[in-house]
Amino acid sequence: MAGSREGGLKAAKTNKERHGADFYARIGKKGGSQVPKNPRGFASNVVGKDGMTGLERAKAAGRKGGQISRRGTGGKTRKDKGVTRGPRTKVEEKPVRKFSLWPFGRNTK
Fold this sequence. Notes:
single chain; mainly alpha; elongated
C-alpha cells in the first residue's frame, strides 16, 4: 500500500490519531513561519563587517573556489586558450637520483 492513495489516507488517519486533529495545520504553520524576515548569508543586502554585501561575498567565495579548482582544462592547453607568456629562460637540469625516496619498492635500483 505504500505510495498509493489508500496508504496515504491510512497514514493521515494515523498521524491525526497520534498527534491531534490539527496536525497538518500545525506543521503547515511551522513551514510558513520559518522564512526569516531579514535574509541572511549570501541573500543579505546588508553590508557586513568585511564591507561586502551577501552578493559580493558570494562572488568572492566563488572566485576563491574557482582559483583552487581541481578540474582539468578540458583537453585545452595554454596555447589553445590564447594565453601567451614572455620568452622562456633556461632552466637548470636537476640531477638524476640513482635511488628512490619511495619506500614501497618502485624504482629502487
